[in-house]
Amino acid sequence: MVVAALIVSLNFVALAKDVMVGAITIEQPWSRATPGGAKVASGYFTIKNAGDSPDRLVSVTSEIAGRTGLHQMSRSDGMMQMREVTEGLPVPANGSVALDPGSYHVMFMDLKRPLKEGETFSGTLTFEKAGRVDVTFEVEGLGATAPSPHSPL
Prior knowledge:
Elements: H1 2-15, E1 19-21, E2 24-32, E3 40-49, E4 55-62, E5 65-76, E6 79-84, E7 89-91, E8 95-99, E9 104-111, E10 120-127, E11 131-140
Parallel strand pairs: 2-11
Antiparallel strand pairs: 1-2, 2-3, 3-8, 3-9, 4-7, 4-10, 5-6, 5-9, 10-11
């Protein structure tokens, strides 16, 4: 009985950051802590589309930033390049898109305050078909490369 309760609670903790609206699921929104005086931060998450038609992430807003944008990092001729994704981010039917360091990401610009490890902040993702999805970003350490696993306690 205790083992079953622990397994259920572990599954709940693992899914606590995920948000679902219609066919769209947003998994593990996170960001990194920023050094003092920083004016930009990045946000990451995975978008899963369980629907039979594609959707598109068209904008992101957040309480912590004066403005936001979708960007993509890529390597060309041995150099990392970043470009703004101006037409929105397509999410294929029955597919997913990962926003990760070194790939697609959200840029939070004109930060209103520094981001500190362990805190959270809210954001709103707007999709062409699914509409608005409110999420909570968890702030990881300054050099984090992925969200940290949840502790069961």
